[in-house]
Amino acid sequence: MTRTARLALALTAAALAALVAAMIAGGAAFPRIIPGLPDEGTLTRWALPVSKLAMDVAGLLTVGLLLTATAFVPNDKGLLGTSALGYVKAASWTALVWAGAGALTMVFTLSETLGLPVADVLGGNELTSFASQVGQGIALTLVVLFGVSIALFSRGPSRPARRRGCWRSPWSRCCRPP
User: Fold this and answer.
1) Are the beta carbons of 137 and 80 closer than 8 angstroms?
2) Cα–Cα distance between 91 and 100 in angstroms, integer?
């Protein structure tokens, strides 16, 4: 295991430990359930903060990696260099995690809002209504769409072409002007 992977694993464990400690100290981990009121269940109670944390961290990493690739890494005469393309490729993976965490956050947020277990939320039409009519659902839908878009478009540039002023896409064999 590389040093970077160990550091990422340690930071992930520290963030999760801090989240669990804050939930226990704040009383969100084991709330008092009032009889007669709907309860979303233990899965939603624990998974919603974890999915929000994953969404926030993945979004931060995606934007940071793209900013590093475009602004801080030396370019190759106006084109992204080889090292910058590595940052863009890493950003495509973090954007995919960002989109997945956004989708999970949407499901768990709806489960918490309605007070229904996740299985009941996924089985009905509530999720499509939430994603298209409620402000928070629309925002989370946009997060998912932007994350998927960034993940797909970041996979486009593979490497600069040999001829000056051209770039090469993995989907084409010819050189086109940018």
Assistant:
1) no
2) 14
The amino acid present at 113, given as its one-letter code, is: T
Radius of gyration of the chain (CA): 21
- What is the distance between the alpha carbons of residues 79 and 108, in angstroms, rounded to a whole number? 41
CB-CB contact of 168 with 160 (8 Å): yes
CA atoms of 80 and 154, how far apart (whole Å) = 12
pLDDT in tens, 121-178: 888 788 999 999 999 999 999 999 999 999 999 887 555 545 455 555 554 455 545 4
Give me the residue label for tokens 């990493």. 61
pLDDT tens digits for range 59-101: 999 999 999 998 888 887 778 888 888 899 999 999 999 999 9
Q: What stretch of H or E contains 168?
A: strand 167-168
Check: CB of residue 29 under 8 Å from CB of residue 46.
yes
